[in-house]
Amino acid sequence: MSFTPFALEEWQSRYEHSVAYNLADSGCHPVALGELLGDDPEAVRRLLAIDLHYPPVGGTDRLRALIAEWHGADPANVLVTVGAAEANAITVSSLVSPGDHVVVMEPGYRQVRGLALNAGAEVDAFPLDPDNGWRPDLAALESVVRPDTKLIAITNPNNPVGTILTPSELAAVVAVAERVGAWVLADEVYRGTERLTDEITPSLWGGYDKLVCVGSLSKAFGLPGLRLGWLVAPPAMVEATWRRHEYATIATSMLSMHLAEVALRSRDRLLTRNRALIRDGYDRLSKWVADSNGLLSVVAPQSTALAFVRYDLPMTSAEVADALRTEGSVLVGAGEHFGIESHLRITHGLEPGYLDAALSSITKVLRTYQA
Ligand SMILES: Cc1ncc(COP(=O)(O)O)c(C=O)c1O
């Protein structure tokens, strides 16, 4: 069977440590361990006293309860995983068989798409419409869903364009799924990264019975290095994914589970820190776009530390991204990694000096091609 590599992650793993400026990561400037612990000697003492044995495979009881609270669920609905990446992978492998039909949202983070193709499924996409402020095209969703659709995957808030679905858009997705009996996978890793409001995007949990919600500490909490994520699902689906989790990873680390408890208890502090980076970063980026004399344009994202910037050059997004890497030592995501050309995904939730220097380097390279 043919294999579809995860093009975005391959691009990042090959090059993210060999450029001066990495604007291809999808979160904020990460939180340091001391900052997470709040420079509290008692918290440091507790960390140093941890026995490094196998942790509870599905997550500590305390952690499962904290995650349940984040989604308005019950701890029995929670399975702790190695990042949202594992949560998505074991959800797809639990639900999707060869010949099944799967629907995803595009532009999007193409993990579920690739996993479904690699499981032998047929995959169709419904668009977020660039001419309508990246709102979902619900008529297209209606027309692409079939009686044999097994799974509809959404990312809310969205990566790469930051769209937050309204309650009525979510209700429409659920209604389409219900009509054909499909599962919904709601990847909610960007909850808490809202740029225009302090209100956390509601979780879809409770909105449908065939639902898996996925979350993570990597984005709103600024802790990707902990490699800690989770899924929230009905008990039978928790069982099915847990059996796959035992094969794939057994568990995430004891240290990560302990630090995740600290992070979820420090939620307001971490979200405030990261939203400040996102708001300042987007202001800088949008000024940079405005100063480009029409070379660049962007639809203002509602959330995430990302901007999906359109460029006006006769080059593919892979060519532009490669030129930026080799000539400007800047790594960005290429539009083709998300299913749409003529765009670059640029992370802006970073330290101001670093971001400004990286954006000037991008401008220098793009000007040479414009000439
Ligand atoms: C939508 C989405 N889901 C999942 C992931 C994977 O996240 P994690 O670091 O928690 O594995 C990412 C990472 O970029 C993402 O953007």
From TrEMBL:
The keyword Phosphoprotein does not apply. Signal peptide: none annotated. It is an enzyme of class 2 (transferase). SUPFAM superfamilies: PLP-dependent transferases. Residues 53-362 form the Aminotransferase class I/classII large domain. InterPro entries: Aminotransferase_I/II_large, NHTrfase_class1_PyrdxlP-BS, PyrdxlP-dep_Trfase, PyrdxlP-dep_Trfase_major, PyrdxlP-dep_Trfase_small. Keywords: Aminotransferase, Transferase. Its EC number is 2.6.1.-. Belongs to the class-I pyridoxal-phosphate-dependent aminotransferase family. PANTHER family: AMINOTRANSFERASE FUNCTION, HYPOTHETICAL (EUROFUNG). This is Aminotransferase. It comes from Kribbella soli.
